[in-house]
Fold this protein.
Amino acid sequence: MRFGLRHVTGCLVLAEELHFGRAAQRLNTTQPGLSRLVAELEGEIGAKLFRRTTRTVELTDAGSVFLAECRIGLDHIERAVTLARRTATGVTGTLRVGYMDFAINGRLPELIRAFSEFRPSIRLELSHIPSQRQREALLNDHIDVGFTLSAIRNEHFDSLLFAQDPYVALLPVTHPLSNARSVRLKDFADEPFVLGSGGSWNAYREAFFAICHRCGFHPTVAQEASSSEGIFGLVAAGVGVSTYASCVRNVQRRGIVIRSLDDVPDTIATYATWMRPIRSMSLEAFTTFLATVWGAQTS
């Protein structure tokens, strides 16, 4: 089609005024110029939009139908312009967030609620992704920001320390030490452990095995689970003991008790990580909120 917004706008103003002189004045053009726009549009459409005499201007039925649809189209265009401007300034948009178990069981829900109140027009899409797979998800543009078990040390990434949780022991309620106020990891040197499976829990397992070796033993893994819920269920069933981040206290789970580990000073760090340079204003708004309002620390 060889007509544009100026043709449509001119006809809409003429339809409101039904007078070429007044319409031309509103459009800051001449009456002959407006007549030419109308004629070009009618020629392109192949139908008369106005009935014109020396004294009156009226819409034809075709003109009424056409211009009613044009008004709807212009409303959509104005909305598109508004949304584009809001997206460009980070007021609205979409943010894709990857998370692992410790993040979603810890402070991440609180952060999501706070940010959603701060930027309600930014829609958050959350995906559960193990820590070691979040790097690829970021590189492949599947997520905008990830919450991982450790910082990604690379010139292509930025990270902020989001949370630090002490290690705790998970024991079945029937365990002899379930009534103790605190325990030591080496107290369980000869007991079977329940751990997350290697595919999704590699980062945690490596850190856990290093702590066990420092405490003078190699843990016996009796059973593996692919999720936190699986770990909790197996511990509750008495299959073995386990360790977890202290954020587990936020999760209600029957059949297990949680005890501090006196001989493990280590913490489990969760980092927010994203690609540099930041190309999304939604991500810019999120990371700024995270660093300033939320108070995360630079890694």
The chain has a mean pLDDT of 89. The chain has two domains: 5-88, 91-299. The domain at 5-88 is CATH 1.10.10.10 (Arc Repressor Mutant, subunit A). The radius of gyration is 32 Å.
